[in-house]
Amino acid sequence: MVLKVLGSGCKNCKKLAANALAAIEELGIDARVEKIEDFDKIMEYNIMKTPVLVIDEVVKTQGFIPSVEEIKALINS
Q1: Which CATH number do you get for residue 68?
Q2: Could you confirm whether 13 is annotated as catalytic?
Q3: Burial of 70 (C-beta count, 10 Å sphere; 0-12/13-18/19+)
Q4: CA 65, 66, 69, 73 torsion: positive or negative?
Q5: Which one from 3, 6, 13, 33 is the annotated catalytic residue?
Q6: How many structural domains comprise the chain?
Q7: Judging by DSSP bridges, how do beta strands 32-36 and 58-62 pair with one another?
């Protein structure tokens, strides 16, 4: 499983990446988090607001920072 955090590298993006890592650790799953900061690559996802959480190439959230528990629920859905 691959979780991607799309954004400019701002504090919100860093917090989302930290929450995603924590969710993976708490679930004990084999997954990784990638941070995507390249604007051209971000635009390929056709999103309007960052930060964005992408799980296995599906945009799950955009424009806010989901909690660790919310990310765990998204992973399990």
Answers
A1: 3.40.30.10
A2: yes
A3: middle
A4: negative
A5: 13
A6: 1
A7: unpaired
Q: CA-CA distance, 25 to 59, in Å (whole number)?
A: 21
Express each pLDDT in 40-62 by its tens digit.
999 999 999 999 999 999 999 99
10 catalytic? Reply is yes
Confidence of residue 13 (pLDDT cuts 50, 70, 90): very high
Three-state DSSP state, 19: helix
How many other β-carbons are positioned within 10 Å of the β-carbon of residue 37? 14
pLDDT band with cut points at 50, 70 and 90 for residue 63: very high
Residue span of the structural domain in which 9 resides: 2-52+61-76
| Residues 1 and 75: beta-carbon distance below 8 Å | yes
Catalytic annotation, pick one of 1, 10, 29, 73? 10
